[in-house]
Write a structure and sequence with these properties.
The protein contains ten helices and 13 strands. It is of the alpha+beta class and 355 residues long. Strands 2-3-4-11-5-6-7 form a seven-stranded mixed β-sheet. It has a three-stranded antiparallel β-sheet with strand order 12-1-13. It has a three-stranded antiparallel β-sheet with strand order 9-8-10, with no helix packed on it. Strand 2 and strand 3 form a beta hairpin. It is globular.
Length: 355
């Protein structure tokens, strides 16, 4: 398993997207988001998706030159049509404007429809925290193919429907919750397939409705389960809320359009804590984190982490040691490079150790 430096991997991804017809600034944004996901250990949303995105450009499912259109706007709200542009480009543009609104009005909310896959959700709420605000984002894939069964069901009717909430603080690493409302993010199943690894029980049912550890079962008529295992009604309820706000509210509808393309609808919220908190909110968040980290660890644990801490530590390590790229993805990146005449990123070290 080769490891690659973040700068070299980003440069390769930018060159690949530009060769596929993406404007340089859009290519930089998308590549930065993908390599950023690799850096924090969310490899399922990293460069493993680069071949998929390039394929979608070729099929017309992503319009790499598209710029967002404002459908409706007020001092505190923004409704955007992404015109099938890159999700990271459209979502970043929208969050920038919501942050600007929140500076004036203390709170702002927005929706997006008709954009491609947004990637790692945390990137956008964290834009709000860098301005000192609380950021929230939910995403749903519209009427594209579904993967998750409602609690008690055995047929896919929902997306993985992730949500993220991020909080400003003065800690070295960001504080945020970023989670699918399914038992696992779809990208992690793709990664398990690429690595030919079994998955834990509780992620999937096979085509006969039985629990399975085979990640390929999803491609053979299986279905993902909602978050929560035996208490899956909780994940199902969260998924319902996300799809209502990120798909129904922006006008994407629900269900499946067999001719549809991947369409990440989103709901975003930015809040200035000064509108509500009588004290320095960032100081209080940091104090709360330190209080939680002082909890004596349970058996089998070395310490208590705050939400986002593992990603922060992974990023520090991977910036030093490089980003490990599993062999299937490395081969596919090589194929992309050969197709466009781009040299592959320099390998730091080849290792079988986890990153």
């Amino acid at each position: 398993m080769p490891s690659v430096g973040a700068e070299d991997l980003t440069a390769f991804a930018i060159a690949a997207y530009e060769a596929a017809g993406t404007p340089p600034e859009h290519a930089r944004i998308v590549a930065t988001h993908q390599v950023g996901a690799n850096l924090v250990g969310h490899d399922s949303h990293g460069v493993v998706l680069l071949p998929t995105y390039i394929d979608r450009i070729g099929r017309g499912h992503i319009v790499p030159v598209a710029r967002p259109e404002i459908l409706n706007e007020s001092p505190t709200t923004l409704a955007v049509n992404g015109r099938w542009g890159f999700g990271p480009v459209i979502s970043e543009w929208t969050m920038e404007r919501l942050v600007a609104k929140a500076r004036e009005t203390r709170i702002a909310a927005g929706t997006i429809r008709e954009q491609s896959h947004v990637g790692r959700l945390a990137d956008y709420p964290l834009m709000a925290t860098r301005a000192g605000f609380i950021g929230l984002m939910m995403a749903d894939s519209g009427q594209s193919a579904k993967a998750v069964a409602p609690f008690g069901g055995r047929e896919a009717r929902l997306g993985t429907n992730p949500l993220c909430i991020a909080f400003p603080s003065d800690l070295p690493g960001p504080v945020f919750i970023d989670m699918a409302t399914s038992a696992v993010a779809a990208g992690k199943l793709n990664l398990a397939r690429a690595q030919a690894k079994p998955i834990p029980l509780g992620w999937l049912l096979d085509k006969d409705g039985k629990p399975t550890t085979n990640p390929n079962a999803q491609l053979e008529g299986g279905v993902m389960l909602p978050l929560g295992g035996p208490e899956g009604h909780k994940g199902y309820g969260l998924s319902f809320a996300v799809e209502t706000l990120a798909a129904v509210l922006p006008g994407l509808g629900f269900g499946v359009d067999p001719k549809g393309r991947h369409n990440d609808g989103t709901f975003m919220l930015v809040v200035d804590p000064r509108a509500f908190s009588p004290t320095d909110f960032k100081v209080q968040v940091e104090a709360f984190v330190r209080y939680l980290k002082a909890t004596p660890p349970a058996d089998g644990f070395d310490e208590v982490f705050y939400p986002g801490e593992i990603e922060y530590r992974t990023e520090q390590r991977r910036r030093r040691a490089g980003i490990p790229i599993e062999d299937t993805t490395w081969r596919r990146l090589g194929e992309i490079g050969a197709r466009f005449g781009i040299s592959p990123p320099r390998t730091i070290i080849s290792s079988t150790a986890p990153g």
